[in-house]
Amino acid sequence: MGFRTFDDHAAEDQLHNEIPDCQDSVTAKIPLLTPYQLGPFHLSHRIVLAPLTRCRSYNNVPQPHAILYYSQRTTPGGLLISEGTCISTAARGYPFTPGIWSEEQIQAWKPIVEAVHEKGGIFFLQLWHVGRVSHTAYQPNGQPPLSSASKQLSGQLFLPCGKELADFSTPRALETEEIPEVVEQYRIAARNAIAAGFDGVEVHGAQGYLPDQFMKDSINDRTDKYGGSLENRCRFPLEVLEAVVKEVGPNRVGIRLSPFADHADAYDSDPNALGVYMANAIHTYKILYAHFVEPRIKKCGEVETNDTLHSMRRAFKCSFLVGGGHTRESGNAAIESGEADLIVYGRWFLSNPDLPRRYELNAPLNKYDPATFSTADPVVGYTDYPFLEETQDQASK
Questions:
Q1: pLDDT value at 11 more than 90
Q2: pLDDT digits (tens, 9 = 90+) for 188-232
Q3: Is the pLDDT of residue 144 over 90?
Q4: How far are the Cα atoms of 179, 300, 326 from residue 303, in angstroms, in the given order?
Q5: Catalytic residue, candidates 69, 70, 209, 289
Q6: What is the pLDDT of residues 161-178, one digit of tens each?
Q7: Is residue 209 flagged as an active site residue?
């Protein structure tokens, strides 16, 4: 094992999850393929499916083709995080994204969750509210999108039909007395996720969406108890987290954060301070995990940076997940050094449904096609990426 840079808690966690002597000699050399105890869940490896917006849930209802998509990427003891799932009708901002606010949606999710469980996987639903990253066409009665402030996001988005582009709509700042209503929507959505069979939920607090719009000082210009100081700006996401924890229990809750990102024009003047404050705060709730986006991911691509998640890793004493541009090599290094407990993979898991197997064998990877990431096709770029055996069979012909 390499030099460990984190505190005794992290070292103890790593020691607790060391590879048993009887472990297969092949996987014993690969940190990503070592087992890990994630609260009550025994993981057979440390490769996690990232929450990926795929835009294939027509009328905001999960579809049968998602059964195959998620089951393809399931391994016994593997952790999957669902695509962002809207907590309410006002939470929408992308075409054909699933929801979890209605009974119809709960029932539609059930066979998808069952397929993952039948293969021995652990499945968490990501709770999503896009806030101002929206348009009046998505909103109930054509009302303005909701946010922490009335600042319009630059750029354009696809309208609900999935074909036409339009400017983002100017949002309306939530009134102080309205905020508990949104917190309650998160709580109900978490309850609905458990009713659908999910093992837990992840609060999406990253990448410029509603919680991030409160945390980041480039957006939040409020003068009430939800604006101004760092403590006040973090109040809303922490109230959401507290409500969700009370509803489903801390061992069923994670949160995703991206203090260094400026996705959707959401950036902060002191991202390290923001990240450390949130890491300390969420630790008090004893949630299952924190999922941080690597500092090199600013918008959708990677940049060179000297920023790290080290101080957040030290502050949060429970399971620490990281995602953002990782390869097999960087993921192994992060696990071995103690920088992270689990590595979250998006694009490579999208295009390689058997990613853990390929990493075990250090086999070639399918290339991903960004043009099909968020199309509405139920097969192309979704469930048609070949498994390694299929690739080898084709090569031998």
A1: no
A2: 999 999 999 999 999 999 999 999 999 999 999 999 999 999 999
A3: yes
A4: 35, 10, 13
A5: 209
A6: 999 999 999 999 999 999
A7: yes
Q: What is the pTM of this model?
A: 0.92
Contact (CB, 8 A) for 127 and 83: no
User: By C-alpha distance, which of 229, 255, 234 is closest to 316?
Assistant: 255
CA distance 60 to 186: 17
Tokens representing residue 367 in the block:
């290339």
CA distance 157 to 166: 6
Give the confidence band of 9 by pLDDT, cuts at 50, 70, 90. Answer: very low
Which pLDDT score, from 0 to 100, does residue 181 have?
Answer: 98
Chain position carrying tokens 């995602």: 323
Average pLDDT of the chain to the nearest whole number: 92
What's the longest Cα–Cα distance across the chain? 68
